[in-house]
Structure formats: C-alpha cells, structure tokens
Amino acid sequence: MSGSQGWCIFPCRCTDGCNTTTGDCLHGGRCEDGYPSGYRWSGPGCQTEQYSANKAVDGNTDQVIEHGYCAHPDADGGHAWWMVDLGNPYSISKVAIHNRDVRPERLDTFTLSVGDSPDRSTHTECASHNGPVAAGATVNETCTAVGRYLSFRRDGVEAYVAGLCEVVVIGHEHISCQECPAISACNDITGCDICVPGKQQPDCVKECEIGTYGKNCEEDCGHCKENTQCDVKNGHCATGCETWYTPNTCKEYIHVVRDEEDYEPTAAAENENEYEQTTPVPVRDDYVNVNVYDMIKN
C-alpha cells in the first residue's frame, strides 16, 4: 500500500498502511514483499527499528552489524538513501563512512550530496565512490560544499540496500558574510570583523543583546528609567534617565550640591584638606531650587 510518513518524504513499506508519524505498520500489517521482515517499521527513513537511520550518527563506530549500531537504509525507487540534518549550514570538507563487517559490497557504489532543505532533489552532488570497500573499512570522501543537509544515495548492484555503521561529517559551521558592511573583512569561520551599530558578530544578523548597543554591540547601556533597553544603535534611552543621570545615554552621573556638607572629600582631597570639585551643570526642571556650584574649602 502506498503512502508517506514522517515529513511526508519517506515511503511507507507496509502492506496495510503505516502510522503517518512513526512509520509503524497498521493493523498488524507486514512489510511489503522484497523488504526485510521480522521487525516493526518506524521513524524517519522508513527502516527497521533495529537498523534505524540515527544509528549512522550515534557516535558509535562499532562495525559489527549484529551489535546493532549500524543503519540499514532501504530502497526508495530502487536506490537506498539516507540523510542527516546538521542543524545549521556547514562548510563541509570531507565525509568518512564506516562500512559494516559483512556484506561490504553494500557500500561499493554511492554518491554524496549537500543542500539547504530536506528535499533531496535540490541537493548538489559533492562526491561519488565507485569500487569496492573492504569489510570493516572506512572510506574517506572529499566533499567540498556548504549546506545544512547531507544525503547519501546507493547506486550499482543491489542498490536497494546499503550499510552505514557511522557517517562522520568533517567541516565547520558556515558563517555568512552577506550582512557584513562594506568596510568589514569577513571569512566563513570568524565572520565579520565589524558590524554596523546595533548588530552583533559574527554575522551581523542578530541585534545587540539586552543591555548593549553600538558597533559590534561593544557598549553597555546607561541607566535608562525603569531599566528599559536603550536604543541598540546609539544607546539613547527613550524612556528617559534614572534620577541624577544625564540624557541621552544616561551614563553621566550628576553630583548635585545643596551646601558645603554635601561634599564628599576624595582621598587626595583629604590629604590636602580640600574638597572635591564639581562641575556646574544646567539645572533640569525636576531639580528646581537646587543650586549647583563649585567649592574649595579654604
């Protein structure tokens, strides 16, 4: 019976239909003729539970098939395939595949492709292998590409089945230079050298974190009223400043003096029997009747 499960890109291989989420056979149904029996079908990849797709990326390089740490992709349109989502775009350089200990010919001919979506038809081939791979051996393929999804497709004799005990993708997370300003240098490892005010490194896409602003988000916000976030570009506080701080960034503290007793001597002033000087500043409306002046004790 035809149908799909998971993300609707995996074929159902059960005679009486399968669960659209897990791929399990319904009504006690069995696998279609030509596909392994004796195990329930489950999960993305439409493989037996014992040899499910995630076994190829579980971090275990055990190549003894009977130990249960290998994936066993089944045919889709005559060609077994497998795919992994790396989570983010990566600059890939190599892919290492650990072959199983028996029936090594199930890895003798294959292609590797990379893309930005789970639709394998949009992937671009980055490597191909033609020829035998010894039992228990590891084949290393150069795959120079950038993408989030890596797909494997089996070709050649008995292309409907493959054995993957572990797939190791070698590379680094890819940082786009698209949003870097013209004055900034960039590479896909470290990202942009400089971001415009309000954007943060490495790719100049995300806005500054709360409490920061400016070029590369290197400046700390001042004392905005009610602890609100300052403007991520210039640091201005739209809600005004907390008491005794000057606009617009609310970073400078005003020392308002009412009389001589308000002065706090500095360490240097104590030694010289002098009082700290304050700089005259304009009196704001909410500081009415407060005189601000300089004083030095005689």
UniProtKB/TrEMBL annotation:
Name of the protein in question: Fucolectin tachylectin-4 pentraxin-1 domain-containing protein
InterPro entries per record: BG_Antigen-Binding_Lectin (IPR051941), FTP1 (IPR006585), Galactose-bd-like_sf (IPR008979)
Record's function text: Acts as a defensive agent. Recognizes blood group fucosylated oligosaccharides including A, B, H and Lewis B-type antigens. Does not recognize Lewis A antigen and has low affinity for monovalent haptens.
Keywords for this protein: Calcium, Disulfide bond, Lectin, Metal-binding
SMART domains in UniProt: FTP
Domain Fucolectin tachylectin-4 pentraxin-1: 41-178
GO molecular function: fucose binding; metal ion binding
Source organism: Ridgeia piscesae
Subunit annotation: Homotrimer.
UniProt entry tagged with the keyword Calcium: yes
